[in-house]
Design a protein that fits this description.
Layout lengths: L6 E8 L1 H4 L7 H11 L2 E9 L3 H14 L2 E5 L10 H9 L3 E3 L1 H13 L13 E3 L2 E4 L8 E6 L2 E6 L3 H19 L4 E9 L4 H8 L9 E7 L1 E10 L2 H19 L3 E4 L4 H12 L3 E5 L5 H7 L8 E6 L3 H8 L3 H7 L4 H15 L3 E7 L14 E8 L2 E8 L4 H22 L2
Parallel strand pairs: 1-2, 1-3, 3-8, 13-14, 13-15
Antiparallel strand pairs: 4-5, 6-7, 7-8, 9-11, 9-12, 10-11, 15-16, 16-17
Helix pairs in contact: 2-6, 3-4, 9-14
C-alpha cells in the first residue's frame, strides 16, 4: 500500500448540543477507527454547531484539505437540522426532492397512525450530486455525494441509525475508495518508566515511517505502533520486529499490549505461579480490589481484601495495635508494612498488598501532605515499601496510588524469575 494511494479524510460532527457538552460524541471515534480499518487516514476531527453559515464554511475548508469528508448528525426534519443544506452549499449544488422517499415517509407515519408534519418531507431532499444511503432504522436517509474528485458522506446521529449505515454500506464504499489496505495499530503498555525516559530509550525506533511509533500517557505510558499494509496480517508482520525491539530495550516494563490492563497482567502472573493475593486498602477505598475482581478468572488468585479507612478499623480488623498507630500515624511506611503483613497473615495469602495515604483535598493527618502515598507488598521474601508524593486532585491521586500498588506487586512477582 503506497503513500501515493493513501486517501485522507476528516470527520465533522454536527450539533450545538455537542458544543455545549450536553451530549458526548462517541460516533467520531468509532468512525475514525472504521476509516483506519479501511486504509484511510483521518487527519482531523471537528465539531460544528447548528449554524448554516459556519457549517458551510467548515465543510468547504475540509474539502480543500482532504479527499473524503464525513458528517455525523443534522439530517432530521427540524429547522436546526442543516447538514444537507450546508453540504449542498459547500459543493455548489441545488437541493432536489426524492419523490419515492417522501412517499415512504408518508406511509411510515400513516402506518403508525401519526400525523405527517410537512417539515418531515425535508428528509426527502438531497444535494444534486448525492445518492441516498438507506436508513433501515429511521426516517432520514444518509447521503453520499461525489463531485470534483471529492466525497462527502453524511450519516444521522442516533446510534441505532448511525451504526448500521457506518458498518454496512459506508464501510463497503470506503474500502473500495481506499484502493485496498488497512491502517492498523498495536498498543504496547509500559509501567514504571516515565514518558520522556521511554522516548529517550526508543528514539531511534520512532524515526521510521512504516510502522510509526508514538508515545502517549494514559495512567502509564502507551506506545502506539501503526502500520499501513494491504491486510491486518501484513501490518502485524511489519509491527512485530519493532515490537520485539521495544520489548528488548524496555524489558519487563512492557506489561501487555492493546486491551491488557495492569490488573490483568498481575492476575495472569499470580495464576501462572499458583500464588494468591490479599489486599488491605485505606486511601483507595476498595478501588484496587475492584480492579482485580474485574478480571475474569481472578478468583484463582485473589482471595479478598479489607477496606480499613479509619485507624480504629485497622486495629479491629487487622489487629494493628492502637499505640502502634498512634506512634507512627495511619499514613506512614510503618503502618503500610503492618497492613500488608496483617492481611497476608489473616487471609492466608502468598502476598499481602497494602495502600495508605492522604488523597486530599485537605490534610486530615498532622504533617502528612496531600498526595503522600505508601504502598507495601509482603511476600515470601519479606516486605517491600514504596513512598510517593503525588500531585493533582483527589480522584487522580487515588487512581495513581492504585496503579502504583499493582505495579509494585508485579515487580515483586517478576523478581522471583
Amino acid at each position: 500500500m503506497s503513500e501515493s494511494r493513501l486517501k485522507t479524510a476528516e470527520i465533522v460532527s454536527v450539533g450545538t448540543e455537542l458544543l455545549l457538552g450536553q451530549i458526548i460524541d462517541t460516533h467520531a471515534p468509532t468512525m475514525a477507527r472504521l476509516l483506519a480499518s479501511c486504509g484511510i487516514a483521518c487527519q482531523r476531527r471537528s465539531t460544528l454547531g447548528d449554524n448554516l453559515e459556519r457549517l458551510t464554511a467548515g465543510l468547504k475548508e475540509a474539502l480543500e484539505r482532504v479527499d473524503i469528508v464525513i458528517t455525523i448528525g443534522g439530517l432530521g426534519p427540524t429547522d436546526d437540522d442543516l447538514t444537507r443544506d450546508a453540504i449542498a452549499a459547500a459543493l455548489g449544488d441545488g437541493l432536489v426532492k426524492e419523490a419515492k422517499v417522501e412517499e415512504a415517509l408518508r406511509k411510515f407515519f400513516a402506518v403508525r397512525g401519526m400525523a405527517f408534519v410537512e417539515s418531515n418531507a425535508k428528509q426527502a431532499m438531497r444535494p444534486e450530486s448525492a445518492t441516498l444511503i438507506e436508513n433501515p432504522n429511521g426516517t432520514a436517509p444518509g447521503l453520499l455525494c461525489q463531485k470534483n474528485g471529492k466525497t462527502v458522506i453524511s450519516l444521522p446521529g442516533p446510534a441505532g441509525e448511525f451504526n448500521p449505515m457506518a458498518f454496512g454500506p459506508v464501510k463497503e464504499f470506503l474500502s473500495r475508495a481506499s484502493g485496498g489496505g488497512v491502517i492498523h495499530s498495536r498498543i504496547l503498555r509500559v509501567t514504571g518508566i516515565g514518558e520522556s525516559m521511554v522516548e529517550d530509550r526508543i528514539r531511534h525506533l520512532m524515526l521510521g515511517e512504516n510502522p510509526t511509533v508514538a508515545p502517549y500517557v494514559h495512567d502509564d505510558v502507551h506506545l502506539r505502533l501503526t502500520a499501513r499494509a494491504p491486510t491486518v496480517a501484513q501490518a502485524d508482520a511489519l509491527i512485530d520486529p519493532v515490537d520485539a525491539a521495544i520489548r528488548g530495550i524496555l524489558g519487563a516494563a512492557v506489561y501487555g499490549s492493546d486491551a491488557t490492563t495492569l490488573e490483568m497482567a498481575v492476575i495472569e502472573e499470580l495464576v501462572r505461579r499458583r500464588q494468591t493475593l490479599a489486599v488491605a486498602e485505606s486511601m483507595t477505598g476498595g478501588g484496587v480490589g475492584e480492579r482485580l475482581t474485574s478480571v475474569p478468572g481472578s478468583s484463582q488468585a485473589f482471595l479478598g481484601g479489607v477496606i480499613v479507612y479509619r485507624p480504629e478499623v485497622k486495629t479491629e480488623l487487622l489487629r494493628i495495635p492502637g499505640d502502634f498507630l498512634a506512634r507512627h500515624g495511619p499514613v506512614s511506611a510503618e503502618t503500610a508494612e503492618a497492613m500488608a503483613m496483617a492481611v497476608r497473615r489473616h487471609l492466608g495469602a502468598d502476598f499481602g498488598l497494602a495502600i495508605t495515604g492522604n488523597a486530599g483535598p485537605t490534610s486530615d493527618v498532622d504533617d502528612k501532605p496531600v498526595g503522600l502515598t505508601f504502598v507495601a507488598v509482603a511476600g515470601p521474601g519479606g516486605v517491600r515499601m514504596e513512598e510517593v508524593k503525588y500531585r493533582g486532585i483527589r480522584d487522580d491521586i487515588r487512581r495513581r496510588a492504585g496503579q502504583l500498588a499493582l505495579r509494585t506487586l508485579r515487580e515483586e512477582l517478576l523478581k522471583a524469575d
